[in-house]
Amino acid sequence: MVDGSYVEQRRARRWGILFKSLTFLYLFALLGMAFFGGSLSDSSPDVTEHTAVINIQGPISASEEASADNIVWALRKAFESEESKAVIMRINSPGGSPVQSGYIYDEVKRLRVLYPEKKVYAVIVDIGASGAYYIAAAADEIYADKASLVGSIGVVAGGFGFVDLMDKVGVERRLYTAGDHKAFLDPFSPQNSNETNLWQQVLDTTHRQFIEQVKKGRGERLKDNEKMFSGLVWTGEQALELGLLDGIGSSSYVAREVVGVEEMVDYTSQPQLWQKILDRVSTTFAKTISAEMGLNNNSWQMR
To answer: How many CB atoms are located within 10 Å of the residue 243 CB?
Structure first.
């Protein structure tokens, strides 16, 4: 009983320390927002001559860091800077929304007209596929490593059908709609051939738009290859032969050897300071809870 009481008291003290710590972190976050509010990316880059760099990292989506809003904001800042001599879009993305990619593509083209003396280069790191290559095609030149994955010029959509499973487990689907196609592609209803054909037309139209933009961006550099727009992905070495790339090289190589201005300044849109502080508070809270519950024990692992 004494041992149990001691354990409970120790646990209570730990929880007390936890919540006091969280209170302190919360107050610290409020002070940080009061004194250092605003976006970290609002700070002006180095005023010396440089090559602007914008990172396009991860899925291209309105809800991700690589959203059109973030990328377009960074592009405008990079072009407006009198000290940036060229812009590099450093891409490491498997693709994403064709709408978001299209917004970025159009903005690159618009800014190139407004600032004809300032070229845009796309540099693909590990992967620049699908919507990511869509964006790259807007650049004056595209570079990648010889082992980078490039291309995947296609459109994909998928889902699941649960009709047979529902029959087996005795689940009845009850769906009420107003409109002949309001339950379009419902996974719990049998496939409708007319709707499937309609959806295929949507995908084909989006694919055609993708191909048109790539051809517009790459022009005569593209080689004649029947598999070019089949959705296949290529290594950087293969992509160079197909005309999907202009050269093999990294961001630093392009800045140094192509632009002629080795110093690079990152214009990538950054989370606001208050967001970073609150993220750190949340992470600390999660780690502390895990420690109290013993979930950080080495024996607890997912393999």
So the answer is: 17
- The alpha carbons of the chain give a radius of gyration, in whole angstroms, of 26
At 301, give phi and psi (nearest 5°): -140, 150
Report the alpha-carbon distance of residue 216 to residue 48 in Å, rounded: 34
User: Which segment of 89-98, 105-114, 176-185, 245-254 scores lowest on mean pLDDT?
Assistant: 176-185
What is the rounded distance in angstroms from the CA atom of residue 128 to the CA atom of residue 90? 10
Annotation marks residue 41 as catalytic? no
- Kind plus residue range of the DSSP H or E element containing 55: strand 50-57
201 Rama class: left (phi>0) / alpha (psi -120 to 50) / beta = alpha
Backbone dihedral region for residue 292 (phi beyond 0: left; psi -120 to 50: alpha; all else: beta): alpha
Residue with tokens 């610290």: 28
Whether residue 72 is predicted with pLDDT greater than 60 in this model: the reply is yes
Range 289-297, long-range pairs (CB < 8 A, 24+ positions):
289/18, 292/11, 292/14, 292/15, 292/18
**Catalytic one of 81, 101, 130, 269:** 130
Give me the catalytic one of 20, 146, 182, 216: 182
The verdict on whether 130 is a catalytic residue reads yes
Residue 262 CB coordination number (10 Å): 13
Which residue bears the tokens 């993708």?
210
Under the banding of pLDDT at 50, 70 and 90, the label for residue 24 is low
Please, what is the Cα angle at 173 between 168 and 175, to 5 degrees?
165
Phi, psi of 206 (to 5 degrees): -65, -40
Quote the tokens at residue 12.
């209570």
